[in-house]
Amino acid sequence: MNSSVQAYRGGVLHFNDDPAFAGDAYHWHEDGLLVVDDGRVIAAGDHAQLAASLPEGATVHDLRGKLIMPGFIDTHIHYPQSDMIASPAPGLLPWLETYTFPTERKFQDPEHAGDVARFFLDELARNGTTTAMVYCTVHPESVDAFFTESSARNVRMVAGKVMMDRNCPAYLADTAESGARDSEALIQRWHNKGRQAYALTPRFAPTSTEAQLALTGELARAYPDTYIQSHVAENTDEIAWVKTLYPEARSYLDVYDRYGLLRKRAMYGHCIYLDDADRARMVGTGAAAALCPTSNLFLGSGLFDFAAADGARMSLSLATDVGGGTSFSMLRVMNEIYKVARMGGTYLPALRMFYLATLGGARSMGLEGTVGSFMPGNEADFVVLDPQCTPLLARRTNHFEALEELLFALALLGDDRTVFATYSAGKLLHSRSESRA
Ligand code: GUN
Ligand code: ZN
């Protein structure tokens, strides 16, 4: 008798809490089994215990030697910047002017937008990322193109139209009114349609007038279950600029606070130069930080202060920030955030980094109980990692004493080659053996 149940046998890892603050924060089954049916997790545990209770006719996929964990969650990424990743510029502001704005201009063409969205979603899957918070461009067409593709693939995505009504080229500017009107129409078209959700997306304080931030705050109140995403405290030149544009604000973060843009499901990229009062406000309002180390090092923006963030118990997540970021791989993000934390005197265990890239991301987005772990009933978004994927990783992971050592080698030496397969809602999205890579 056939059954629709699919079971995946391998090393199974997932988290129930942040290992930095809780004991027993993770579940590790060296010979484990992940059981999936109808796009959802039925169970995760030891193979020896679960195999006997599989229904007759269930399919068992033998992935022994590999690791099965929840799909990665990238909480800050720009899909239109896929084609300009690794563009040289001496810092954020010249990089935006020289490369970013001309690249984003092309997204007024829906065909171009669709083409890049397809490439981008393929690339996320190749890197094991199953959920992302995505910036589109100022053009509503860029959002339609993105969600058309992401909903066809049934991947859980959050995205939004960039709003900017000053300090940008005229060809990319909206107005406070048109930005709000277009965003509201997009909310009605896409928010909570299947696995898609909408994010109000004022690019950053310097490119919005007070009127635009005020209208965005009104939308955030009118649609409280939408997301908000923006950039904050990324670069010292940017911060000096914000001071001149918003002289009444106590800090850069305070600009957003004044317009009601700090709340649950608000995700702020970078957060490098926050002070203690800002950190307390992030925690008090339920807003979360997206840490983007590959971008921050590439653009010379600065080093995120892990010790201060943990001291305040900020909600943290990891992100690539492509195309300021230099890779789509969340393993590469772990590699760089590890070094950034070291430079600030913090030691980040690999277990914490994998938590941040899975359940930490889900929590920061208010998606715990939906994705990010293998709790029964969760959507079955997962990734299969191959420690044998390169000669060096194979050699290094041939011998290890503890799970931490294996995970650390994957975080420091891994990339897209490490992703053997990616599944979304129980369906195979990417298989390395079936692709060119
Ligand atoms: N600040 C405003 N826009 C951007 C962007 O596109 N990338 C980065 N890294 N920072 C920004
Ligand atoms: Zn960004």
UniProtKB/TrEMBL annotation:
Keyword Transmembrane helix on entry: no
Could you tell me the EC number(s) of this protein? 3.5.4.3
Q: Which reaction does it catalyse?
A: guanine + H2O + H(+) = xanthine + NH4(+)
Chain ranges of the Amidohydrolase-related domain: 68-428
Instruction: Give the record's pathway.
Output: Purine metabolism; guanine degradation; xanthine from guanine: step 1/1
* Co-factor note (free text): Binds 1 zinc ion per subunit.
Cofactor dependence: Zn(2+)
Q: What domain of life does the UniProt record list for this protein's source?
A: Bacteria
Belongs to which family? Belongs to the metallo-dependent hydrolases superfamily. ATZ/TRZ family.
How is this protein named in the record? Guanine deaminase
Sum up the protein's function in the record's words.
Catalyzes the hydrolytic deamination of guanine, producing xanthine and ammonia.
Q: Which UniProt keywords apply?
A: Hydrolase, Metal-binding, Zinc
